[in-house]
Design a protein that fits this description.
Two copies of one chain form a homodimer. In chain A, about 40% of the residues lie in helices and about 15% in strands. By secondary structure, chain A is α/β, with parallel strands linked by helices.
């Protein structure tokens, strides 16, 4: 039988180089690769497919697929998943989904994505990749999704935030956000949070109409704009609910630009529980999502799918808990 | 000649599944993989190694290797590289290096890391991976490094920051940081910046001794501690240089805790130019690194190494420019 050593000898390279060339791995020059392939063909070499991934059918790698990891929310979430997967003996790669589509709108070849499974958040442009792997989506909220979902407590958390503003004496609560979220951001959870806020206001008997929304982009810059409008247009809200901490931090800066005192003139609460809110001036009250449970639930759902590919299990949805953290921005 | 279709027929699966099983890709169950391998062996099938990566010797993928992407600095840098690589027709994966070592301190198998090259920042625990790929390191500063390096203007930028504080009337300048940086952070650039700050102070004829350093961990929490110590220990600095914006943002919060007015009581300047400094209260003066040049230089160096593997070129070092941005924290 022709061995790898024979191929290497024929090609005039080391066995390691020959193996790498045949597997298409590491740094082998095109010229060397061609030489090794020619030698393998000449000798009738049959690859000894013995890599762990072929023996077990698994690579031990999970892809964290997200439109972008900009900012504290996505990057800290990714690092939590890396830690949890490492605990489970797996390895994580981060893949940004925003470049998965070519100029004609076609999904690019993802054959290099050899992971055992995908954890996706806001992973647009990746339907093929998701469909061809065991996948768990975070913050998706799609009804009848074919994938397991793990969600933040967007409804319960939002209602708690509104009630908190109410208990702090707020009677005209404004919402900061936008009806049509930009592509690059978690639109689904935003919509769920906006609707829940509206319902809770109505339940508390508070005035709530189309003027209760300060419509700005879901970003820090959008938050700054909302803060400016609060002051410049004398909107009169005594409490502001921001469906993300990023937005809320922008609002605090926008209000500071106008010399507005938070929380005396207006109380502000965010949503997520990113660490940035501990360091802002004033510090930010927020609904802190239980990221530990979110990470563990998603990894547990995913590993079950990976280890039981034959099992026909309905998609599961897990919603994790939250903790209301009162800081300076609502302390009055 | 035995074809893939023959193998698929023998194994009772589709040609697509057979191909995936043979390549160890996508979601194929261990059972199916075994069946396909057995069929291939029985029929004497020889893999048609035709994947693009084997024809060209390249996968079109670059790995961004970093200890962690927590926080605004690393995550925004990663996204800039993803954009630049996409422009060059390549694709980026992010790999966290902190889990590359097993419990015995041995580097784990990285054979799945089939990228054409590596862009590494603070990529400890990855010497094998770096050595086996064309690699460019950011912020490394190692003398006689075998790798191309692209660095922030740590010396020139720091001297500009100190001069800025001096021109704003500061005569007792304090440095926030630590001599022995924690594992997970960019120690090299910190050391270069601390040394440059010391030299610039001496050149300006300012008092500078061991008491000029407020020694805290390189993190936002460390910055808060430095702010508290400024007030509680009456350190008397009228200007503070922080070698990272993260540290500086912590300092602003720590000073706010004690009711200190920035910049009236003490001026504060950071280093990096992350967007967070536009949103803090007060907004943060900083040395904004030219990240566009940094990204382009690193990608250009890397693609040259990838495309000319035969070329024996000395390691290159590129240092990019900066812009001093004056904001509220030093505006007086």
């Amino acid at each position: 039988m022709v061995t790898l050593k024979d191929v290497a000898k024929e090609a005039g390279v080391t066995a390691t180089t020959a193996s790498r060339a045949l597997r298409g791995m590491d740094m082998v020059t095109p010229k060397t690769t061609q030489k090794v392939l020619a030698a393998a063909e000449k000798l009738g070499y049959r690859m000894n497919i013995s890599a762990q991934s072929l023996r077990t059918g698994k690579s031990g790698t999970v892809t964290f697929l997200t439109a972008g990891i900009d900012g504290a929310y996505f990057s800290s979430l990714a690092m939590r998943f890396a830690a949890e997967l490492n605990k489970q003996g797996m390895h994580m790669l981060i893949e940004s989904s925003q470049y998965l589509v070519d100029e004609h709108g076609n999904e690019k070849d993802m054959s290099y994505l050899f992971s055992d499974g995908i954890i996706g958040i806001n992973a647009k442009h990746a339907s093929k990749a998701l469909a061809s792997h065991p996948s768990v989506l975070l913050e998706d909220y799609t009804i009848d999704s074919p994938y397991d979902q793990v969600n933040a407590p967007s409804q319960a958390g939002t209602r708690a935030a509104i009630r908190h503003l109410y208990e702090k004496g707020c009677r005209r609560i404004g919402l900061v956000g936008h009806d049509i979220p930009p592509e690059s951001n978690p639109g689904a959870s935003q919509q769920v949070r906006m609707l829940a806020a509206k319902h809770e206001c109505q339940e508390l008997g508070l005035e709530f109409d189309e003027h209760s929304l300060i419509s700005v982009p879901w970003s820090r810059a959008g938050g700054v704009e909302a803060g400016h409008r609060w002051a410049d247009e004398r909107l009169g809200f005594d409490g502001l609910f921001c469906p993300s901490d990023g937005l809320a931090l922008g609002v605090l800066r926008g209000l500071a630009d106008r010399g507005v005192n938070v929380p005396k003139d207006v109380a502000v609460i965010g949503f997520d529980g990113i660490t940035d809110g501990e360091y802002s001036v004033p510090t930010l009250s927020t609904i802190a999502v239980d990221f530990t449970s979110m990470t563990q639930a998603a990894v547990s759902l995913l590993t079950h799918r990976i280890n039981h590919p034959e099992e026909e299990r309905y998609p599961q949805t897990v919603t994790v808990g939250y903790r209301l953290i009162e800081r300076e921005s609502t302390r009055r």
